[in-house]
């Protein structure tokens, strides 16, 4: 009988998203890869044989290309153990870690090795890494060395990042970085806000005196949004487009919040420039009209804007102007998130840490919004799994097919869930999604054919497949 067991795992589902089609399927796994896809009731010899109930579908694992883990250096904000458990609980089987806010930032190969050393023993989902482009490592050979070590591209800020060890690039340095990366076809991923526009907004004369009872200081959310107006994003993206045109390079705009930049993006793509764009679940879920004063759990940069703007972002996803959705999970301690406020649940938008903790909820949040708008589940999988895998160049992820990594998710799409922050797995109990009503329950997550969770063996550290460096 032992000779008949040829596979490690088979997962059977009445609805599985297999190469662009919903179908009944049995998905057989050996040594971390999908080795066969058959009918629902096919006889398959496997050590573990799982049949999903009818209310669950089988999906490829989510690939989150924008996660701030912060380890080493700021592990009290978030670390690989807690971040990857949160990922697995949310159906995310691969994360790509940002080069900040860890100390040191991932701007040299030595710093990358420190990251890998921290992530390797603790991570229960696969982890890759972005490098960083800062003024100090331009022209030094560090960018090429990081590229050859397997990072997936290079993060740059065009405005202050919020941490001193990761300074932003000037417009001239943006062109320099993109030209340097173009030599080896490296990808520059950009936080696109223009510092001159931010300075101009800060220097604008105050509006008429606040109405009686209005919050003092930086507690007012509408004042925070005015401090980072649409033109700040639009101008920075225009600078990115100019640099693409001048260098022939590749660029990806991170966390687009302003729909006023969509025409610039459409024109750049029509011109044939190699530009991709992401937005984030919080820009698709929340709106400025429903964010209260002092509610700094919603603070992020660029900011969450109005309802009409949100609907234009949804339209741009559907028409392909925006390519992918990623979480931009950027956690901190509760004290930093509500800094400057009168109590532990209200902050000052001028001083509170800017970032949304949403890794575990990102897929379900986008699915909830899509379902409300009549957008099918497979579209969300396209934006958050197949699309993000393609962005970072991981051809064996983001799909269920023979030869692909056995990264699988059992998902009940119609199960309602009310979020309690204390039930989430990321390190600090604060999130903009607390008490949100979402659709979807992640019933099981397999990474390389193994159930992900606290007792799972460590997952893989990933490099770009074209490097020749082993994962």
In the predicted model, the low-confidence regions spanning at least 5 consecutive residues are 208-216
What is the 3D form? globular
The percent range for strand residues is 15-25%
Biggest sheet architecture = 6 strands, parallel
| Strand arrangement across the biggest beta sheet | 9-10-11-12-13-14
Characterize this entry briefly.
With 471 residues, this protein is α/β, with parallel strands linked by helices. The chain has helices at 80-89, 109-119, 142-149, 171-182, 195-203, 221-227, 230-247, 262-270, 281-285, 307-319, 334-337, 362-372, 377-392, and strands at 7-18, 21-30, 33-38, 46-51, 57-60, 62-67, 92-97, 126-129, 131-132, 154-157, 187-191, 250-253, 274-279, 324-325, 408-418, 437-447, 450-451. The strands form 4 sheets. The protein has a 6-stranded parallel sheet with strand order 9-10-11-12-13-14. The chain has a 4-stranded mixed sheet with strand order 3-2-1-4, with no helix packed on it.
SSE topology sketch:
Layout: E1 7-18, E2 21-30, E3 33-38, E4 46-51, E5 57-60, E6 62-67, H1 80-89, E7 92-97, H2 109-119, E8 126-129, E9 131-132, H3 142-149, E10 154-157, H4 171-182, E11 187-191, H5 195-203, H6 221-227, H7 230-247, E12 250-253, H8 262-270, E13 274-279, H9 281-285, H10 307-319, E14 324-325, H11 334-337, H12 362-372, H13 377-392, E15 408-418, E16 437-447, E17 450-451
Parallel strand pairs: 1-4, 6-7, 7-8, 9-10, 10-11, 11-12, 12-13, 13-14
Antiparallel strand pairs: 1-2, 2-3, 5-15, 15-16, 16-17
